[in-house]
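$ ./design --mode recover --in tokens.txt
reading tokens...
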């Protein structure tokens, strides 16, 4: 995991929840952690990490992830045993 990915992981776990994290940075973090990503229908992205699976929606047309989506990513990473 590089420095930018570490900062993304820390940003996901920041309180209060941030709403300015680019989705591409979150996808890059997933890949660095060893997750398997597959594209679903439309803007859905399936993520499998450490025996856990989740489906997220890519934000569009904006690039930044909403607070609710960041909280979902945080919960998923916590369940998968990944935290800063």
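writing sequence...
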């Amino acid at each position: 995991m590089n420095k930018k990915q570490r900062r993304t992981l820390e940003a996901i776990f920041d309180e209060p929840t941030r709403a300015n994290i680019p989705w591409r940075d979150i996808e890059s973090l997933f890949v660095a952690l060893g997750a398997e990503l597959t594209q679903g229908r439309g803007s859905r992205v399936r993520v499998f990490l450490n025996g856990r699976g989740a489906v997220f929606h890519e934000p569009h047309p904006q690039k930044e992830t909403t607070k609710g989506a960041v909280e979902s990513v945080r919960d998923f990473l916590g369940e998968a045993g990944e935290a800063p």
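exit 0
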